[in-house]
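Reopening this one. Same input as before:
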Amino acid sequence: MAGGVIQQLLRKKLLSQSTHNDCGCLLLILQAPFVSSLLSKRDNFGSGSEKSLRALALLGAGISGFLGFATVAFADEAEHGLECQNYPWPHKGILSSYDHGSIHRGHQVYQQVCASCHSMSLISYRDLVGIAYTEEETKVMATKIEVEDGPEDECEMFTRPGKLSDRFPQPYVNEQIARFANRGAYPLDLSLITKARHNGQNYVFALLTGYCDPPTGVSIREGLHYNPYFPGGAIAMSKMLNDGVLEYDDDARINLIISVFGCFVWQLTNFFFMAWMGKDVVTFLTWAAEPEMEERKQAGRFLFSACIKGITLFPIRIGNTYRSTRWVHRTKSWERFSLF
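Same output, byte for byte:
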């Protein structure tokens, strides 16, 4: 009796699994003459045979469940991209702040590598003052662009040098020109990219540094590039963070290598330098998406310290009030007694 029930359960389980994944082979094994004979001879087996049938049932269910989970995980990876790990960002802690040197270098990476395709329409030049540059440096940087303004008194538009209140320039006039220049792909605005993506900072960093050759059996269409962290694995943007694509100001690269890698030889720093470029530009993009983070944390620290002081001083204040009130009561009682 037990063998028939187990056989029906196994067949029902494998039929339900085979509709979603490749577990049909297990169903064929179950319907094989040898297994069917084992399950059909249920009346002639003792307790040992029943244990073996239970073990066989558990083994079949375990294999089918494992194959189903692997198929679902593979489909999820292909649809949503490879899950990226969590990196220890310096500004992630409650009491931590942005690395302003990293923001400065990240802006250089954006300006020299990313700005040719991606815009940051929500950021103005004045936002960089006191964060990555001085006011004079930012003014000089803004005057290097030309902004269309107007109309003037004669109702005509004119161009002028940029100023601190101007936004970062747009690389393309409209979306149609942007798609035409990038083979149909539209470069996203990066102002809020770390907030618009799940696990934003880690995802952007993994995407920038995760380019590799496609695995065996995976074909990528011409004009696309393989990146396992991008949904679908095929991305139109090529690998941009290559050694030699930019130079940091004031020999920052040499200072960075000396301060961070110290005893490592120069030849081994190319890979790490690309990772540092990714780290710097992600820090800059994170600041662009949350420029108020440091002020928010300062306000939180102030409120937390105020709460701690209130919790500490409140009992002391209550005790002092109680003692002073009790002393006044005793004094009045003594004066009343002395009158008699």
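So the earlier flakiness isn't reproducible anymore. For the record, The chain is about 55% helix and 5% strand.
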